[in-house]
Design brief:
By secondary structure, the chain is an all-alpha fold. The protein has two helices and no strands. The chain is 46% helix and 0% strand. Helix 1 (14-24) packs across helix 2 (30-41). The protein is elongated. The protein starts with 13 loop residues before the first helix and ends in a 9-residue tail after the last helix.
């Protein structure tokens, strides 16, 4: 499965992101990725912010 449609499984925030990056052979700042994901997930869903 390519980048679109890739799913992270399980809970764990930073640990889950780090495990996914490692699995792909990537070096990611898991703390920053998780923080950004959390900020985006907290945004309200509205017609002006789909």
């Amino acid at each position: 499965m390519g980048p679109v449609g890739v799913r992270l499984t399980g809970n764990g925030g930073q640990d889950r992101v780090a495990a996914y990056a490692e699995q792909r052979g990537d070096d990611a700042d898991a703390d920053a990725v998780h923080a950004t994901k959390s900020e985006v997930a907290a945004l309200p869903i509205s017609p002006s912010n789909p």
